[in-house]
Design a protein that fits this description.
This protein is of the alpha+beta class and 748 residues long. It has three domains: 456 residues, Alkaline Phosphatase, subunit A (3-Layer(aba) Sandwich), CATH 3.40.720; 82 residues, Arylsulfatase, C-terminal domain; 180 residues, Sandwich (Jelly Rolls), CATH 2.60.120. The chain is 22% helix and 22% strand. It is built from 16 helices and 28 strands. Strands 1, 2, 3, 4, 5, 6, 7, 8, 9, 10 and 11 form an eleven-stranded mixed β-sheet that branches. The protein has a six-stranded antiparallel β-sheet with strand order 18-28-19-24-25-26, with no helix packed on it. A five-stranded antiparallel β-sheet has the order 23-22-21-20-27, with no helix packed on it. The N terminus is likely disordered.
């Protein structure tokens, strides 16, 4: 890259007017970008609802983002797909999410073209296009656009960030991770092990790395424009927070979610974000008025919301560090900076919230007593919390439902556009409806970059989004987005010229059993007055529009299962798998032996001297998992079922020399044919007897209510326990000090 002399900051205005744009040159791949071409920074939040930012009505303090809104634009009718991976795919490709290949969360690939869990080879991404135009490209945070099978140290890396156009990447590939001890942390394609001593906090660390990338770029190529994709984990569960951030919100939510919703709506109406006659959506299923909760239930509810607010507050602090760097180095004026969320507030918890979300995903149940006993842990490394559904509704004020629905609560997102050098109005509101797949076309239009027709030798699918560049300087022109379909887990909707046809079905209920609802969004943006019964002709008309879109954009066949039911997470085939000392971490979705819903044994062969101890094999973390280890001269096996530990220990001291230690589990359930949704009910009853053996002799036994959880997020290690420990009985990594020959899994 040839560097140009001059000031570090590129602050010359870059106006979208035709006279200036006519002077721009479209550069071939690899050429230098024009020195006055704007930088691009996209901040994408996770599971943050329409009403969670101060500038969108919240009482949570987000001064950095609010400042961007006050000096930029707020869009009031911006929509996303309803779930994280699909929104990110649409954002980075300019396509509908099924067209890109990401019809649902990328963790579990399906066979249909619209649900592969990765962006198709015949699709190009925004970072690829910008990189070819001479931009430096960098990313930090959550990717979630490579399927679980491909999240291994051996690759393939084609769909990782550095395989999709980013020069530099630091972050995690999965949907979520511990913020204290990330189980899935990468620098480029190199695994990174974060310290487990309590000094590491991912939101701060990813921002540190973003600033390092920016500083390194400034020093090496100060006149080359850059694209930073800042993909924060906030506020996806687990809501891991620093004590000082939690302390700031102590007592602030004691009046409850009903008061918060009403006050947020009033602020939104005063700002002009929603009409003055907008009404709050009815309660989400399972939510009851805050005043009807017991004193202890209110305590749990408000504590979990205080923790959520602390997470968002910290996110804003870290975004503030990036904005401060841009301002300090003269880059803020000529940076197109966008802030948005990937979907609405999350329903992935019980009505009263959860202190360990693994219980919810495995449908194992969580009692009020468990929440109370774990309340002091909330936010720290021994918790995995998500907030109650009542506070989820406050996040999504005033809209219906939640993440994974395609009503407003799932798909309505904040969108802030800040670009002083582009003539963007300070504090302006834009009411034109647009969708997340419109972002890439907008940016390419503003930058005067043509979307390529080929990727390598493959013909590229053209973008399907509609640029909203026209709206940056025009608040009055009607939206150019005339039609947009939505589909997520069988929840369907079509927007067409002001009308919205939408449906919702409960989990594990056939989507076709639930009727369409019809709304005139121009008059009823909060989807309150269902007109379907009185306008059957309009329903029939829009149903055909949806059917045509579903056929055109690879939506079919519609898969109406929610996340948990999209795979059995196990194989019916018997298997024997041997692993050597040091193996791991093995991806739980792709590489690690799957023990759920079956009988199994684990046998470790090793030699030890007196005093040798350590982990023989471990999978999971302090939230759920299992470990076989030696300590104090004895053999131990621990099953951690969402914080409830069952420990088996040999009574006698182990001899020196070669030996075998085995743990064997025999379930007493029945692997009957899976009925609709029956996987999870069936799984919960696969309890059985577990035995610990030394050289073939039983030394301890117990009954487990179930085998290892279906969903264990941290991978499998042999000879140590990386990251978060399965149990606090030892301190990680607790490397085995003897000679470990192998560990063999026998899956029956």
């Amino acid at each position: 890259m040839v560097e140009r002399a001059g000031a570090v900051g590129r602050t010359r205005p870059f106006w979208p007017g035709a006279a200036i744009l006519a002077l721009m040159t479209v550069f071939a791949a690899g050429a230098n970008a024009a020195p006055d071409r704007p930088n691009v920074v996209i901040v994408i939040m996770d599971d943050v609802g329409f009403a969670d930012l101060g500038s969108y009505g919240s009482e949570i303090e987000t001064p950095t983002i609010d400042g961007l809104a006050e000096n930029g634009l707020r869009y009031t009718n911006f929509t996303v797909t309803g779930v994280c991976s699909p929104s990110r795919a649409a954002l980075l490709t300019g396509l509908n999410h099924h067209s890109a290949g990401v019809g649902h969360a990328s963790d579990i690939p399906q066979e249909a073209r619209g649900y592969l869990g990765e962006i198709h080879d015949d699709v190009t991404t925004l970072p690829e296009v910008l990189h070819a135009e001479g931009y430096a490209t960098m990313m930090v945070g959550k990717w979630h656009l490579v399927n679980g099978v491909h999240r291994t140290a051996e690759g393939p890396y084609d769909e990782w960030p550095t395989g999709r156009g980013f020069d530099h990447y630091y972050g995690f590939l999965a949907s979520h991770t511990s913020q204290w001890t990330p189980h899935d942390l990468w620098e480029g394609a190199t695994p990174v092990e974060a310290p487990s001593d309590g000094t590491y906090y991912f939101p701060d660390a990813m921002t540190d790395r973003a600033l390092e990338m920016l500083e390194e770029h400034r020093e090496s190529s100060p006149n080359q424009p850059f694209f930073l994709y800042y993909s924060t984990p906030a506020a996806h569960a687990p809501h891991h927070t620093k004590p000082e951030d939690r302390a700031k919100y102590a007592g602030r939510f004691d009046r409850g979610y009903d008061v918060s919703r009403a006050e947020r709506l009033a602020r939104q109406q005063a700002i002009g974000l929603v009409p003055e006659d907008a009404r709050l959506a009815p309660y989400y299923p399972g939510v009851i008025p805050f005043e009807e909760l017991s004193d202890e239930q209110r305590l749990v509810s408000t504590r979990l919301q205080e923790n959520y607010a602390a997470y968002l507050d910290n996110m804003d602090q870290n975004v503030g560090r990036v904005v401060a760097w841009l301002a300090e180095h003269g880059e803020l004026e000529n940076t197109i900076l966008l802030v948005m969320s990937d979907n609405g507030g999350s329903r992935e918890a019980y009505p009263n919230g959860t202190t360990n979300q693994g219980r919810f995903f495995s449908q194992f149940g969580e009692t009020h007593e468990q929440r109370m006993s774990e309340l002091s842990l909330v936010g720290g490394p021994d918790s995995y919390p998500n907030y109650p559904l009542g506070w989820m509704q406050a996040s999504n004020t005033p809209f219906k439902l939640s993440k994974a629905s395609v009503h407003g609560g799932g798909v309505r997102s904040p969108l802030i556009v800040h670009w002083p050098a582009g003539g963007v109005e300070n504090g302006g509101l834009r009411k034109q409806l647009h969708h997340v797949n419109d972002v890439a076309p907008t940016l390419l239009e503003l930058l005067q970059i043509e979307h390529p027709s080929n990727r390598a030798e493959t013909r590229i699918v053209p973008m399907e989004g509609t640029s909203f560049a026209y709206s940056l300087t025009d608040a009055e022109t009607p939206t150019r987005k005339l039609e947009q379909y939505y589909e997520m887990e069988g929840n369907r909707a079509i927007y067409s010229r002001g009308w919205k046809l939408v449906s919702w079905h409960p989990d594990e209920e056939p989507y076709l059993d639930y009727p369409w609802e019809l709304y005139n969004l121009d008059q009823d943006p909060t989807e309150w007055m269902d007109l379907a019964a009185s306008m059957p002709e309009k329903v029939a008309e829009l149903e055909q529009v949806f059917a045509a879109a579903a056929l055109r954009y690879d939506v079919l066949p519609i898969d109406d299962r929610w996340f948990n039911a999209r795979t059995e997470f196990t194989s019916a085939e018997p298997a024997q798998i041997s692993l050597a000392d040091g193996a791991g971490p093995l991806n739980p979705l792709a590489e690690a032996p799957r023990l759920a819903m079956r009988s199994w044994s684990i046998k470790a062969r090793f030699s030890r001297s007196q005093g040798d101890e350590g982990v023989l094999v471990a999978m999971g973390d302090i939230y759920s998992g299992y470990a076989l280890f030696l300590q104090g001269g004895r053999a131990h096996f621990v099953s951690n079922l969402f914080g409830d530990e069952t420990l088996l220990s040999s009574s006698a001291t182990l001899p020196e020399g070669a030996m075998e230690v085995e743990v064997e589990f025999d379930h007493d359930g029945t692997l009957a044919a899976m009925l609709r949704g029956g996987l999870w009910n069936r799984y919960r009853f696969l309890g059985g007897e577990i035995r610990l053996k030394v050289d073939g002799v039983d030394v301890a036994e117990a009954r487990l209510p179930t085998g290892p959880p279906v969903l264990i997020w941290e991978g499998l290690d042999v000879g140590l326990d990386r990251g978060s420990p399965v149990t606090h009985a030892y301190t990680p990594p607790f490397d085995f000090e003897g000679l470990l020959e192998d560990v063999t899994f026998d899956l029956r």
